[in-house]
Write a structure and sequence with these properties.
Number of strands: 12
Keywords: Methyltransferase, Porphyrin biosynthesis, S-adenosyl-L-methionine, Transferase
Strand order of the largest sheet: 3-2-6-1-7
Structural class: alpha/beta
Protein name: uroporphyrinogen-III C-methyltransferase
Strand content: 15-25%
Radius of gyration: 20 Å
Number of helices: 9
Pfam family, one: TP_methylase
Domain Tetrapyrrole methylase: 8-217
Distance between the termini: 81 Å
EC number: 2.1.1.107
Length: 256
């Protein structure tokens, strides 16, 4: 007598890169998975939480090379749930922060398949935190923006221009290819001396960081050969980091 397949899909946020930042709830979901579909930004060490016999399918994107289109991923999730049972969709960071998680949930639920979401620690807050950057700080920053640097039509988000006008900390994901445009928008608001940190592969052993100001950051990126995946943090809180204070102290002395 065959066991009845009970399809179920759980979206799990894998966190920003450090496998220790996976939540306990995320680890428990993986332990019950028959199939895991995982992204490029999800640390493969996390797959060890899934049963050895589970099927593991890479569906991520690396350097513009897409293993599957989003439509194909949606269908893979459904097909595997109907065939094998519990599918864990493992996504870098948090599945609902620029992760297209809601699209996947909507598609799966249209087939009547039960779903659950396990939030993940977003790189937008965790990566700066690893460098001692507090996105809000009493008397320095009352709020923060988290913006995608590249929209679905491959353009810079119009929100960046609005954020540049505010006193908030600005965190930009997927913005390295648009750095020149971002710098220009902040310079237009007379913010050339505003501190900037760019953190590549944050929270992982491959982490690299470049710090400077709006006016200098493009030179820093070229000098340190920084590239994607990286997070851009703009605001006075960058200068407040205990890890980065010495740089800005020395930088200001040099500028005098």
């Amino acid at each position: 007598m065959h066991k009845t397949i009970q399809p179920k899909v759980t979206l799990v946020g894998a966190g920003p890169g450090d496998p220790d930042l996976l939540t306990i709830k995320g680890a428990n979901a993986l332990a019950e998975a028959q199939v895991v579909l995982y992204d490029a930004l999800a640390n493969e060490e996390i797959l060890t939480y899934a049963p050895k016999k589970s099927i593991k399918i890479f569906v991520g994107k690396r350097k513009g090379c897409h293993a599957y289109s989003q439509d194909e991923i949606n269908q893979l999730i459904v097909d595997n749930a109907l065939t094998y049972g519990h599918v864990v969709r493992l996504k870098g960071g948090d599945p609902f922060i620029f992760g297209r998680g809601s699209e996947e949930i909507d598609f799966v639920e249209s087939f009547g398949i039960p779903t659950a979401v396990v939030p993940g620690i977003s790189s937008s807050v965790a990566v700066p935190a690893y460098q001692g950057i507090s996105l809000t700080k009493r008397g320095v920053s009352e709020s923060f923006w988290v913006i995608t640097g590249t929209t679905s039509d491959r353009k810079l988000s119009t929100d960046v221009a609005l954020a540049a006008q505010s006193s908030a900390t600005v965190v930009i994901l997927m913005g390295m290819s648009k750095l020149a445009q971002i710098v220009s928008l902040f310079q237009n608001e007379s913010k050339g001396t505003t501190p900037v940190a760019i953190i590549q592969n944050g929270t992982t052993p491959k982490e690299k960081i470049g710090v400077g100001t709006i006016d200098s950051i493009q030179d820093v990126v070229a000098e340190k050969k920084l590239s994607s995946p990286a997070i851009i943090v703009i605001g006075e809180v960058v200068r407040e980091s205990n890890k980065l204070k010495d740089f800005y102290h020395d930088y200001l002395i040099e500028k005098r």
